Structure formats: structure tokens, C-alpha cells
Known about the structure:
The chain has helices spanning 66-85, 90-111, 122-137, 144-151, 155-166, 170-188, 193-199, 205-216, 220-227; strands at residues 9-11, 61-63. By secondary structure, the protein is an all-alpha fold. Helix 1 (66-85) runs antiparallel to helix 2 (90-111), helix 4 crosses helix 5 and helix 6 (170-188) packs across helix 9. The longest helix is centred in the middle third of the chain and has 22 residues, at 90-111. Mean pLDDT is 83; it is low at 39-43.
Amino acid sequence: MEYRTERDTLFFFNIGQQFQIGNNSRGKLVYFNPEFYCIAFHDKELTCDGVLFNNVFETPSIVVEEHENVSFNRIMDEIKQELSKEDYWTEEMSRTKLKELIITASRAWLDRTPDQKGLGTIEDELSRKFSQLVETNYHKLHSVSEYAALLHISPKTLNRKIVKEKGTSPNTFVKNRIILQAKRLLAHTDLSVKEISAQLGYDDQSYFVRFFKIQTEKSPLEFRKTASIY
């Protein structure tokens, strides 16, 4: 997906997610791994399982208001300054500044998402857990019943709650996540269709090809050819 922004915008990328910044774009990139931040902090709303990351429902992006620019740029600059010191406290202070950045961004995203249910509600917890499970298991679990079993609820209950909150069935979210990864592998690797099929948990390559074509109206090889043009 291509994004064109006329104003400063925050984007949040997950591990393994391919992205490219246009030649006419300027910005700052803060890269960190789970071992540095996500395991150290246990406030679940602000970790890699929080509202900004590992979210199969949407990829959060935030158009920054002018008054917010000061805060975000200050934190970015402070992280950069801290990393240049390289003393005993650098790692811990950088982690603290990163947490401030994520809290500020989480607040901004929630302010712009009026239909987001309050954090910590039963509904929010279920959709968040479902999202995390899909992100972790989409390459081997393909049915709603398998995710419902992990959540200790019936498939009917899971379907009703996700449709009510998100307006789309959990089955659609699972399929979309599989297709997204298939597209990434086709566009950004030299793996064969058979290898991609196996990575995504399909032992029958022909079944995967039919599934991909139903979802995208193109065969995997047709999609790869089209993706290579851009």
C-alpha cells in the first residue's frame, strides 16, 4: 500500500514488515527489537502487543498536529543525543525515552480513534488477544475454530464479538493476514510458490494457489510479475 502525506505522519512497522521511504520524503526512523523494550516492560498496552504493533485490524498511522510536533521531535532528538553518549546509563535512559515516545504516540492514536473501545475492557482484551494470536499463528492456524479454542470460547462467540466490534468476521482477518504475508514473500523474496505455500502452512500447493487467486483475482506468479514492475 502506498501512502502520500502532505503533513508530518507517524508510521508503525512490525518486525519483518517491508517498507520503503520515497526519494522525496524526509524523516526519522527509530528501530528497536523486542529484547530491548517489549520484554523489559510489562504494561501490555504499551509493548509490542499494544495498540500500535501486532495489530491485524489495522496498521496505525498518525498525522501529527502542529502542537504535537514539538513533543515528538523533542523525544526523537533526546533519543539521538542519548545514544551518542554511550555511558553506563545510556541503555536505560534510551529505553525510558522510547517508552515516552510510545505512550505519546498511543495517546495520539487513541484520540483519533473515537470508535476504539476503552482499553482494558473485556471486548478490547478479546480483540487484542485475537489479533496477537493471528499475528503469531497465521502461518499454521487457518480456521476460526482453532483461534476460538486458544481463546477458550466457541467459534460462534468469537465471530459475534469480532464482527460487532470491528465490522468484519475473524475469518476475513485471518485470510487477509495470510494473503498479506504471501504478497510480501512474492514481492520481496525469490522463494518459489511451493516454498511460500509451505511457509504459510499449506502442504497442498495447488490448494494455496486456488486460495490466493480467489482472494486476489491473480495467481501467485501473476502477482509476482505485477509486483516486480513497481
